[in-house]
Amino acid sequence: MVKEPAQGAIWPCHIIYTLCMFELVCNTPGEVDERCKVDCACCKDGKCGQGKYFSSDECTLGCIDGYRGARCYKRCTHNCTKCERHSDVDNCIACNDGYYPGSARDCTSKCLPGCKTCTSGTTCTSCMEGFYDINNKCNRSCPFNCITCSSNNDCGSCKDGYYKGYQNDNINFPLLNDCTYKCRDNCLRCSSYDRCSLCKTGFYGPNCEKNCSTGCLSNSCDMHTGNCTCFPTFAGVTCDKCKTGQYGNLCDQQCSVGCKSNVCERKSGNCKDGCIVDTIIGDKC
Description:
Layout: H1 13-21, E1 48-49, E2 58-59, E3 67-68, E4 74-75, E5 80-83, E6 92-95, E7 99-100, E8 109-110, E9 115-118, E10 124-127, E11 131-132, E12 140-141, E13 146-151, E14 154-158, E15 162-166, E16 175-182, E17 187-192, E18 195-199, E19 203-204, E20 210-211, E21 234-235, E22 241-242, E23 246-247, E24 253-254
Antiparallel strand pairs: 1-2, 3-4, 5-6, 7-8, 9-10, 11-12, 13-14, 15-16, 17-18, 19-20, 21-22, 23-24
C-alpha cells in the first residue's frame, strides 16, 4: 500500500502516475458505478481484500468485463466491453458489436454496415444477422425470411413462421434451404411442417391444432399439455371447469345460494345435488 507523503513533501512523478492508474489521486476517464462498491460486485468471482494499493476491497483476481481500476469501480468508457485494468486512458481490449478499438483504442471506430464484428474499417470477422459474404465485407443480404445465411439460397436459421426443407414435408417437392416455406397456421416457430416448436398464443398440441381453454389467463397454455394458470372463476389443470359456486360459459355467474354444496351445472345453473333444504324447490333452488 502507498502511504501519504510527509507534510510538505511532494510525491515523485512516477508515484503520482502509478496512483493515477489505480485511481487513487486523480480523475481518470470512466464513470464510477456505485453498485461496484457493495460486496466487491465488480471484482472477478467477487474476490477482494487487502492488496498492494488498498487495505481492503482491492480486487484480487481482476475485474469483470466492462470495468477497471484496482477496486474495479470504474466502467470502461464508450463501447468497450473489456479494457486494461490499470490504464489512465481508454485501452479497450474488446468492443460492443459494430465497433473496433481503432488507433485510439477507445472502441469509437465503427465497423462496416453489414459487419457484426471487425478488426478494422475494412475487415469483418463476422456478419450481422441478415447479411453474408464475409470476404466481401458482409455486403450481401440474406433471403427475406432468413435470420442468418451463408449464401442467397442457404439459410442457417429462419424467421418465425418459416422453415427450410420440403414443402409440407413431402419429399416429392424440391428441397429448399432459403426459408421459403410457411409453418402451419397456428405454429409460430417450426423446423419442418410437422415439427412445431412454439405455438401461437391460444393454441397447443403437436401441430398446435387445439385451443387453450377459455379459462386460461392471457389465453396462454402449455404447448404439450394445455395446462395453464386460471382466471379467478375457473378451476382444473387446464382451466376448463368452473370454480365451485360459479357457472356459465365464462364461469362468471354464481350458483343459487340454495344449491347443496354450492354446486350447479355449468351450462344451466341447475343445482347438481338438489337444494340445501326440502322446503326450497325448483331446478335452481
